[in-house]
Amino acid sequence: MTDPDLSPADALVALLDLREVALDPAVATDATVASFEGDSSPQPGGHVFGGQVMGQAVAAVGRTVPEGRRIHSMYSYFLAPGDPVHPIRFHVDALRDGGSFSVRRVLATQPARGEGEGEGEGRTILAMTASFQEQQEGLEHQERAPEAPGPEDLPTTAQVLAGIDHPVATYWSTQRPIDIRHVTDPIYLGPDAAGTETQMVWMRTLAPIDATPLMHDAVLAFASDYTPFEPILRRQGLSWMTPGLRLATINHAIWWHRHVRADEWLLYVQRSPSASGGRGLTQGQLFDRAGDLVATVTQEGMIRVKQRG
Q: For residues 127 and 76, what is the distance between their CA atoms, to the nearest angstrom?
């Protein structure tokens, strides 16, 4: 477990820094090259944050590729909710090591409901495929960041939620390791009155972190999962406080175009082009302070509003 005396930012790095464990013959295949184990950070509602599992999975696969190769894309399917009581095992398969690229698959597993530690690996909660590349020269073009006020001119989440006595508000204000500042009005407490279709937020870790480049990539994956539902909620005139609101991530993909530090400000520009069949899609772009496009994110999630009878 992480040290309770660590700051939220340092605790995040410790959370993503997995411990290597012996291969389990019950789940290992001929392609399995390593297994790791990680714990979970407490969350309101007693669930495991999906961004945590993605960040840990990125850290796991990144430790199995040749030196000098960094992640450029990953695709995750969320298959079952994680149980914070049990550690999560990450089993990494090597699918390819070519001259420039390496491809890995990782399955995140936990004991089945009712089982204890050591009694089996009965549930796969996340499946991820990730590709890594050596640094290379090539053609260059990119979109540029839109105009936006700087993060220093925007209120913190703690300031927005000041005076709200609720466990979720307390967690978002004081325990979340990522500093998130909304350019568009936040929808924590109520819908977006303006009906804005494009959302913009600044984000970075709460404090500088002493971490490897791989860990910065893992933190970016972690942080990218906080706000993708919000553009969908905005278009539907909903907020996080809408009664009967049910949300769950189905899949999440990231393309790294340029690698940056996760403790420096990134502008996350998001929109939702579609919602149908109880699902909503969000597209996001991450820009650094210089306006360079550093990553593209897409997420599909289940979104339902249960009507009270």
A: 6
Longest CA–CA span in the chain (Å) reads 60
pLDDT of residue 153: 95
Q: Which residues are catalytic?
A: 225, 249, 299
DSSP string, 14-29: HHHSPEEE---TTT--
How many DSSP H helices and E strands does the chain contain? 6, 12
Q: DSSP class of residue 186?
A: P
Which tokens is 308 given? Answer: 């009270």
Distance CA 75, CA 80 (A): 16
In terms of pTM, does the model score above 0.90? yes
Reduced to 3 states (helix: H, G, I; strand: E, B; else coil), residue 9 is helix
pLDDT band at 308 (very low <50, low <70, confident <90, very high): low
Q: How confident is the model at residue 86 (pLDDT cuts 50, 70, 90)?
A: very high
